[in-house]
Amino acid sequence: MNNVDAAGVPFLSLLFGFYLAAAAASFLVRVWWRAVALIGSAAALLLAVSIWLLDLSLPIWVLPTGWTIDLAAPIALSAYTFQLQPDNAPVLATSLAIGALALLLHALYRQDDNFPVLVWLALGGYSLIVLLSGGPTAAVIIAPVLLVILTALSVFALHGRRDSDVTGPLRFLIPPVLAAPLFLLAGWWSEQIPLNPQDMAIMQAVGTFLGLGILCLLAPFPLHGAVPASSESAPPPAMFFVSLLYQLTVLHLAARVLAAYPFVLQQSDWPLWMGVLGLLTAVWGGVAAIGANHAGRLWGYAALHDWGVIVLALAIPDVRSWALVLFLFALRAISMFSAVAGLSAIEGRIGSLHFHNLRGVGLRMPWNSAAFLLGGLGLVGFPLSAGFAGHWAALQSLATVDWRPATAVVVASAGAILGFVRVARLLFGGLENRGVAREGAWSIVLAVGALVVTLSVAASPQLLSALINSALAAFD
């Protein structure tokens, strides 16, 4: 007992033990699915806030019982070391917050009963990637291999035992499967650098493989197919959880690659390809949204357009502090949650989200329809939406380099806006769905809450400044 007190219990041992216990409890008492989801959401949110507020300069917690918890103590697993550090704590906390929101959505709009189990397992797996600090192979080299495993697990959450095509969710496997061998090749070449440090060809090979690997993981056009296809077939809360968690991890991995191998930018054409493919992704997302005939697919194309803007921001020469990228991602999360809250409620009432089923639904479900529309418009940077400030800042930065790509993004976003105008006309047109039940009280509370947050951030985007400044420690 005294030895334990002296050394301190590693915080990460408790964290991963909690993940396993939460997954097991969620499975064993899944019959009480709403209580499982609500308790899990509250626990994940509490843990996220606690980790975000941790002061790692004071690494020892002393509990009232006399036990101590060592926050910075590493743990080992299969020769790999995992440690909580200032450069990964914000990412870990954000991942838990995304999981908390996904479980909250599940509590109101029931998905597959195993969804909470998959959420906890996925959070545990992504936490391993974020916290990985050392081992026989460099952390940034082995991380994409772990991403392949976690993406395969995510397919089950995206399918949700629905009678729908699993092709869309399976497409999420393509980017990490393509990227993993590129990272492994980069790792092999990087081991040759100490043997011949004057050979610039070796550094160029490492930079090329790492640049291509990150580019694959970002899944720009033409590797984008999983997003719109899964947005149509997958449960909206699962799509929200899987896509945001994966994209946050990839952005953090890109920052770690640039920190560990700063010559990547000089020894490869990564910024050029990032800019070209980011622009194509944003343009395709906006243009394809015009012809969408399914509300979920429209939301997916809007999210794809927004992701293209983020990828494009990574390529802007003056953006090296990551502040703009994190600002865009924070606004993306807010807009996606608002859209998915409304979309889940509408789907729960009418089943299919094809446009022909949406006529007059907004007159029966005004709050959730408004949440879906405002969240979707935020993803395309519509004025008075949460995403407008981020898109405007990105376009200004881009225009200082070249006004033509900025103009193309604006035109593409106008196309996506037209798609949402079509949906708004259907939702609030003639009352053709008189049999649709009105919104429930808790559904209205969630929709109004999402709208309040969205409008507050749209009116005062500086509200996110403190959070983004704290998160920068994980990216700069």
Number of helices: 20
Quote the beta fraction: under 5%
C-alpha end-to-end distance = 40 Å
Radius of gyration: 22 Å
The average pLDDT score comes to 88
Order of helices and strands: HEHHEEEEHHEHHHHHHHHHHHHHHH
Taken from the alpha-carbon principal axes, the silhouette is globular
Percent helix, as a range, is: 55-70%
> Order of strands across the widest beta sheet?
1-3-2
Describe this structure in words.
By secondary structure, this protein is mainly α. It contains 20 helices and six strands. The two termini are 40 Å apart.
Which helices and strands, and how do they pair?
Blueprint: H1 2-7, E1 9-10, H2 11-28, H3 33-52, E2 60-62, E3 68-70, E4 75-77, E5 80-82, H4 89-108, H5 115-131, E6 132-134, H6 139-159, H7 167-170, H8 174-190, H9 200-218, H10 226-233, H11 236-260, H12 270-290, H13 295-315, H14 323-350, H15 361-364, H16 366-379, H17 388-401, H18 403-427, H19 441-459, H20 465-471
Parallel strand pairs: 1-3
Antiparallel strand pairs: 2-3, 4-5, 5-6
